[in-house]
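Give me the fold.
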Amino acid sequence: MRREACPQAYLRLVTDPAPAVWDPDRLPDQTGRTFLITGANAGLGYFASEQLARAGAHVILSGRNPNKLAAAHDALEARVPDASVQTLLLDVSNVGSIRAAAASVRGGLFKRQRLDGVLLNAGIVHTPRQRETTRDGRELVLVTNALGHFVLAAELLTTMSKSASRTWTPRMVWLGSMSTRMGAYDPVDIQLERGYAAWKAYVQSKVVVQALGIEADLRLRDAGVPVESVVAHPGYSIGGRTPRVSGVNEPSAWKRLKGGLQAPVAQSKERGAASLVRALIDPEISGGEYWGPRHLTRGLPVRQQPSRTSSDPAVRRRIWETCEILSGMEWPLQRAARMAGR
């Protein structure tokens, strides 16, 4: 039987100071490790990739647009001359693309035969006004922000488990959102078939993401899989506060002005990426935790409390089972444990 830990014991449900000083500009050495970042051609994904590359990691930049991926690759190599980086075409709203990309990783088409972490970052922030669906009839925002990453994590699980060692436990990080504190949406109508609204679609998809990230860690532990799952959010990180990077972030003068007016509550995407990177590589962090900026919208990353809906055990189980049905797949937990020799 599955173990259901007491949420208060299993999760860190109170805002907690960081266990050690964390400097995003001086990260622990990541030489020899490989990380896959989804949505890496711009925004948070790009800056997380750059920070990891500066720390010595091999970074796989993934995205759905080959031209934008190439631009991000060139920008990263220009800004980090010794960077070890490759690109991977991956559209998280397309199951076929997900499986093809995962097969490339599993098949050893990249420089290193290991995968030490995955940042599940890609998503839609500016959601469509009217409900849209993918080719297979799934609601677009749910698929892009949550369901596609559920499938990708499952496809990469055995590869990650084989990369575990005495000194490193591979980790997947799910991109949560502070917006989940602003709307207690319980995703009963998970595809919003009975009532779509752009804001609700975004917030509800992030409730799903956070519930999946927390539930994943519990199931990984129960199965003895040496992979951790962590949820992190970037606060209020905007392009107008972000350094200009050719081909990656080129805000207009008007966007810069708006960004400046929001300075008291906003931060750059470069700084927002710090929470995601810390959640991915800090050895002091444990699976099942939730991290974000100290002042909610901005600041250095600290341990925080997820929304009540995201951390509710019954909601988490229901969302997980619904995603299994919608994706038509179950995570290969037992096989991943065997592959790791557990």
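The first helix runs from residue 7 to 10.
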